[in-house]
Amino acid sequence: MLKVKDIVECCECLNVPLSEQDILKPTPQTVQRVYEMFLEYFVGVTKEQFSQPNFEVLQMLDYPEMHTESLSFISFFKVLNEFMYEAGIKDFSLKDILQPEPKRFKMILSYIINFAKFREEHAVIYEEITERANQLSKERDELSAVTRDLKAKVDGIKLQREQEEPAVLNAEKKNQALVEKMVQLRNEQGVLSEKYTKAKAEKVRLSDKLHENQENLMSLKQEINRLRGRIVSSPEKLMQAIQDFHDKIAEEKNSLNLNEKKSRELQIKLEGLNSLQVQLDSCLNVFGNCENILNRENESKTKLNDLKDAIYKQQQILREFDVKKQQMERMLNNAEEKLNRLRIQQESKKENIQSKLKSLQEEYNQIKLENQKVKNKINHYNNEIESHNNKVKHYYVIERFNF
C-alpha cells in the first residue's frame, strides 16, 4: 500500500486532483468524483455520458423521470466495477462509494496507481500490436471490396457472354455457309472467266479472219474486174467460183455471228458473276462482322481470364493477410496473456506484501500491547514507589515531630 503523500503526487500526474485530507477523511461525493475522473482517464467515458438516459429502459418504467439519476448511477457503477476488477480489486462494492473508509479508499487508490504504472510500462507494445491488427483488418476489408468488385465484373462478363452466345453460334453457322458458298462461287467464276477468255480470243481470231477475207474479197473483186475484160470464156466457172467464195464468206459470217452470240452470253454470265461478286463482298463484310464479334468474345475471354487471375491473386493476398492477422492476433493474445500473468504476479506480490504487512501489523500490535503492559507495570511500580515514598516521608515527619 502506498503512502498518502505518494498517492497524492501520483493522482496529480494522472490529472486527478486529490488532497491528503480527501484520503484520510473520504466522503461519498469526493470518492465518486475521483472515480469518475479515473474512468475518464483510463476508459474514456465521461460523466456526461453516464448522465445520458437509456431510453429503452426508461420506456419500461412507469415514472421514468424519477429514475433517471438512479439509472445513471447504476451505469456508472457497472463500468467502474469492471474497471476495478481489471485493476485487481475483486471485491469492489457499492459500499466503497456510499460508505467509504480511509484505509479501504487508500488501498483502492494504491491498486489503481499500480495499475496505471503497469499499463504505462506495457502500453507501447499493446498499442503497436492493436494498431497493426486494426491496419491489417482495414486492408483486409479493402481487398474484400476489390474482390467483390472483380467478382461482379466477372459475373457481368459471364452474363453478357451467355446472352451473346446464341447470336455468336448463329453467326458462326452463317459464316460457315457463306464460306462454302463463296468457295463454290469462286470456282464457278474461275471456270466462266476461262470460258469467257477463250470465247473472246476466238472472237478476235474470227474478226481478224473476217477482215482478212473481206480484204481478200475486195482484192478478188478488183482482180475479177481487171480480168473480166480479158477472160471471156467459161463465165459459168467464174460465176461458180465467185458463188463459192460468197458462200464461204457467208459461212464465215455465220460462224462470227455464233461467236458473237456466245460472247454476249458469256458477257451476261460475267455480269451475273459480277453481281454475285458484289453479294459475295457483302457476305464477306458480314463474315468480317462475325469475326469482329468472335474477336470481341475472345477479348472478353481474355479479360475474364485476367480478372480470374486478378481474383486469384487478390485471394492469395487475402489469405496472406489472414495469416498475418492470425499471427498478430496470436501476438496480441500472447501479450494479453503476458499482461494477465504479470497482473496475477503483481496481485500475488501485493497479497504477499499485504500478508506481511498484516503480520507485521499484528506483531506491532502485540509489541504495542506488551509495551503497554510494561508501561502499566512501570506506572504501577511508580505508583507503589511514590506511595511508599509518601509513607516514608510521612513516617519521617512523624518521627521528626516526636523527636
Overview of this structure, please?
With about 400 residues, the protein is mainly α. The chain has a domain at about 145-325: Orthogonal Bundle (Helix Hairpins). Helix content is about 90%, strand content about 0%. The protein is built from nine helices and no strands. The protein has helices at about 5-15, 20-25, 30-40, 45-50, 55-60, 65-85, 95-100, 100-230, 235-400. α1 runs parallel beside α8. The longest helix is centred in the last third of the chain and has 168 residues, at about 235-400. The mean pLDDT is about 75. GO terms for molecular function: protein-containing complex binding. Belongs to the NUF2 family. It is found in: Chromosome, Centromere, Kinetochore; Nucleus.
Q: Provide the gyration radius in Å.
A: 62 Å
Mean pLDDT, to the nearest integer, reads 77
Task: Characterize the largest beta sheet: strand count, sense, and whether it forms a barrel.
Answer: none
- Distance, first to last CA: 71 Å
CATH class of one domain, please?
Mainly Alpha
Please state the structural category. Answer: mainly alpha
CATH topology of one domain: Helix Hairpins
Oligomer: single chain
CATH architecture of one domain: Orthogonal Bundle
Question: How many β-strands, per DSSP?
Answer: 0
